[in-house]
Structures are given as structure tokens and as C-alpha cells.
């Protein structure tokens, strides 16, 4: 693994000052219970601006009386464009970006490669490599102990059994492993990469490094208005608080600076933490996945995503999976909206209809290349298309097509029953014996005795409780949805026909 040097948070104001980042005179950084954070200095005196006060009343007036707390010049905001600008004068970075093709042309890909290159430049390299810039130093303020589940121990991850986070983390880890393999394939012929990263004797790059830069990006990237997904130095030191507790928000000003500004109606109180929201609507599982914590004041899972598959005995399973691959996520979302649970999934309808209902796949010979698949509804309407490269859906959703059919209630009932089975199987994994087993798991403060850190254990326990509650509520609401569907005309007629067929046979 690459070694990383760190800088103390106390050195951040000096770094920021050198790099044109301006602060309201009452804003500072401190070590808090949840890592570093932005705080209002205790000795703040109203209207007492000393010479270091860089955002003054004039600037505040220019921004329509919005109190600007931090202002970061656009050329310090780490974006896809800035990485490619840096690459113009840094041939080391440029070689890696070019070798990775399309991946290096996405914001996440470019930023991950940038972070990895700069951590390498600043590590104990065999010869001096790379072109440093202010971000080479800023990376040293980013902590290494990031509590995201992709960085948890294996024993801790096992405790996610039954939660919606389990599949998401497993999937993410295998996606990260594939990316790491691609990085190796693409860069081992570049001599500096081979020497510093891959060579059996001199290379020091490991999967943990890739996992770490992904976690840095995932837990700190902001969707900055007008700039997309970026990393904003200093502003990314803001911790999260939701609802009325959120003190500040981030914006882009007319000069394209990234600014942290006080929310309207909020006041800076000496000693108070300056928080932003990472997304009030995010579910418990997503908060842990992206940021590694749960807010103690939130006691609902809000929403969860569960993985689904087409059953193995479905004769069209492979073809269905091909058409779904680019068009619909293989899962369902369960959420609380306006006091009731709601579920959404287009994928599930692919598991509910087959040839006897009107779904068919037709093989088409092409002039060049392998044959392609046409997806047909009732032999006449082409609803999708699968080639060896991609698959496309012509209609917006299969649900939309089925909802126009006279048997819609029958198709929908099949979907609701599958949702019910899915929720029941997750609930079984969260409760009963599993609950008891979880309660018996040993843990200790830093995990050195048991492999499980107590705060991670408590967080998973919280998630298990909240998701159990949501699943139970979901199942209650599904029972009444099933009751309504069972009494609908098409379902009643269908069941009568089925009974008739059975009687005829007997
Ligand atoms: C954007 S960074 C914020 C700065 C971070 N505290 C640091 O030391 O660099 C996001 C990370 O801060 C921590 N964090 C933010 N808000 C939190 C909160 N309300 N409770 C616990 N941890 C929090 C989590 O570790 C999260 O992944």
C-alpha cells in the first residue's frame, strides 16, 4: 500500500490563505467528535474585522446580503475539467488518463486517477515524479480513517446480512476490483506506473489504495450547481446535519467561485458547528454507504433498495436480463411518502410476464456481425432491441405497456406478490434467530479484540432496526394492495377461469 503523509487541520487556514481561498473572519476548522469540521470561532465579536478578515461587508452586499462563509476560486475546485487542465502540464497524469480512455473522461474517473497519482507523487517514490500543485498538499488534510463500509473489516461487513446495504456493498466492492484490474491492464506498460505501482519488487500499489481514493471521493464530492460532481477544498470539511439543523449551503457565485453561505434566517453563533446537508431525503442505508454514519436524530430508514433477479426457472431469463442490462436497475425501491409506503420497480414486471402473456424475443440476422434480438409485445409492437454491444428499450417502461392491457390488474398482482416475497425474505434475515445472533456479536471500541468496532456495530444495529420497521410497514401496505387487486374484476374473472380449468381436469 502507498504510504500517505497527513497534515494537521490547524495548518489548513495557512494553506487556504496561500491559495486564494477567502474566509469570513469568524470561520475556522477544528477537530470534532466526527472528524474535522467547520466552526464559528468562539472569540467572534460583531463588526470587529481585523486585517485578516477577507470577506468583508462589501462582498456580502454584492451577494445580495447572503453571508458568505468561504469562497473558493474556480481554479481550486477539483473537477473533470481541472484534472484535464492539470494533465496538460503533467505528462505522468496525462499518460494514465489517456491509457484509461472513457473512464478518465468521467468526473469520478478523472478525480480518482488524479488523487491516486498525487498520493503516489507524495509517497516515497524511487525517482521524483509528477508535477505538484496545491491539491497535492490539500489531499494530506483528508483523513485516512474513512468509515465507509467498503473499508470496514470483513467481520463487520458480514453483520449487514439481511439489510439492503449488504448487496450494495458487495456489488460496489466487486465493481472496484474490476476497476482496479482495468487500471493495472491499462497502465502496466507505462514505465513509471510499472515501477511505482505494479512491479513485484518496486511497486507498492494495492487494491486498498484504490478503495481509499474511491471512499475519499464518495464521502466528499459535492454536486456543485453549474459544475457537476467536484471536490471543493475547505468546503468539504463541513459535516452533515439535516432539517432545521443545517446551518449553511454551497453554491456557485457569479464569478464561478464555489461558496459556502449561511442559510437565510440562520445566525453564526460562537462555538457552533457550521454544517451542510448531504441530502435530507437519503435513506439510512445510503447515508452509511456514502458517508459512513447515521444521524442520531433520524429514526426512520426513509427508503431502501433491494436487489431482485429473474427466477431461474423462467425460460426467457437470459434474454430478459440482456434487455434489462442498460435499461432498468435489477431491484426495487421501498420508501415512505406522505405517511404511506410506496414501492417502485420496472424490473419486477419483467419477472411477471412471459410468452403466454404476449412477451416474445425474436432473433434477427444482421448483414454484418452477430444476430440481434427484437423484443416484441403481442407479436406486433417492438418494445426493445438487444445487440451484442447494447440493449435499448423503445417504450419508457414495461410497466407503462402492461398498464394499457385489460389484464393489467393480473400482471400488477403478480408484481405485488413478488415484492411481498422479497420483503418477507429480508425481514426473515433481520429478525428471529438472526436477530439473536446479531445481539450476541462481541465488539470493542477500536475492534482490536473482536474485529468489530463498537460504533460500527451500533450503526449496523440502528440500520437493522430501522429497515425492519420499514419492511414491516411495507408488508402491511402490500396486504391491503393485494386485497384490493384480488377483488378487481379482471383478477376475479381470471381466478374463476382457473378454478373452471381445475374442475374440468378433475
Ligand atoms: C465531507 S467529509 C466532512 C469532513 C470530515 N469530518 C473530515 O474530517 O474530513 C464527510 C465525512 O465526515 C463525517 N461526518 C460528516 N457529518 C457527520 C455526522 N453528522 N456524524 C458523523 N460523522 C459525520 C463522515 O465520516 C463523513 O464521511
UniProtKB/TrEMBL annotation:
Q: Name one GO cellular component term.
A: nucleus
Gene3D superfamilies reported for this sequence: set domain protein methyltransferase, domain 1
Q: Which SUPFAM superfamilies match?
A: SET domain
Q: Which residues form the SET domain?
A: 19-279
In which domain of life is the source organism classified?
Eukaryota
Q: Which GO terms describe its molecular function?
A: protein-lysine N-methyltransferase activity
Name listed for the protein in its UniProt record: SET domain-containing protein
Specify the species: Talaromyces atroroseus
